[in-house]
Amino acid sequence: MAQQRRGGLGKGLGALIPTGPIVEAAGGTGTVPEAAPVDDGPKPVAGAYFMEIPVKSITRNPRQPREIFDEDAITELADSIREVGLLQPIVVRSLGEGNYELIMGERRWRASKLLGLDEIPAIVRNTQDDAMLRDALIENLQREQLNALEEAAAYRQLLDDFGATHEQLAQRVGRSRSHITNTLRLLNLPGNVQLRVAAGTISAGHARALLTLSDPAAQEHLASRIVAEGLSVRTVEEIVSMGEATAAPAPRARRAKDAPDPTLAHLAHRLSDHFETRVKVDLGRRKGRIVVEFASMDDLERIISAMAPGAALED
């Protein structure tokens, strides 16, 4: 059964460009109804729009220079998408009649196909000017309020797909290069920690403090403590700096019991037959014991009579 894309987590670049309704024009290009610019919101991006596209309606770009893809890396990406959703839309162009050709994001497209997703978020591009689309998206980053994980995904896609640089991003969005770098590092957190950041249960400051830990299990454990105990960012930083952030202790494994001694097992079997009840014979390091089970007082008296006829229980 095909899986549905996990939604509600983040929009990435999908938050920075308009959505339909789309009108298919002759020649297979889409147009977007003109919208008045909003002073405090993203501006319409010329020559592009955002929509969910059926995965089966997308064909591979025959001019894609990359022919070999690491299947293990695709599987890892699919696992990430299953866990935290797809934050970075692919980029396609319309071929008309509901068909599209992939321009950027083949790894994401392949991973989505591997998961069996029905639809995938995509930027549908009409213009061939990559620089114009890149610059418009960078400009809209200043205008749209994204959560920290969405912001990180937008930065990563602008760097990877649109050839932006850290300097361009920093200058155009009014942020420092260190902010760009630290925000991008949020994408290195374990999936369930990313979910907490996207949901707002832990802040970007908490997440940056967690990134100083190298053990993903320790990151997850401390993230759980942040939520459960309401820890401040400063407290988390102190816990990390003092080396007190560790993964939850693993449950103590039970020591495997030694195999029973065949001689003692044979003796226990003989005694069980003789007294007609269950008998256990154990031998420890310093001493041993024989355990004879009985069902009632009458049964106990019967067993004692068999062991020592003169020592029967008196009335």
Per CATH, the superfamily of the domain at 48-62 and 69-128 is Conserved hypothetical protein from pyrococcus furiosus pfu- 392566-001, ParB domain
Q: Globular, elongated, flat, extended or rod-shaped: what is the shape?
A: elongated
Percent range for β-strand residues: 5-15%
Gyration radius, in Å? 33 Å
CATH architecture of the domain at 48-62 and 69-128: Alpha-Beta Complex
> pLDDT below 50 for ≥5 consecutive residues: which ranges?
1-10, 21-38
- Please identify the oligomeric state: single chain
Termini separation: 75 Å
Stated plainly, the CATH topology of the domain at 48-62 and 69-128 is called Conserved hypothetical protein from pyrococcus furiosus pfu- 392566-001, ParB domain
How many helices? The count is 12
Quote the average pLDDT: 78
Portion in helices = 40-55%
What's the total count of β strands? 9
Structural classification: alpha/beta
Assigned CATH class of the domain at 48-62 and 69-128: Alpha Beta
**Strand neighbour order, sheet with most strands:** 3-7-5-6-4
What can be said about the biggest beta sheet? 5 strands, mixed
- Topology as H/E string? EEEEHEEHEHHHHHHHHHEEH
Domain ParB-like N-terminal: 51-141
Keywords: Chromosome partition, DNA-binding
Pfam families: HTH_ParB, ParB_C, ParB_N
Protein name: ParB family chromosome partitioning protein
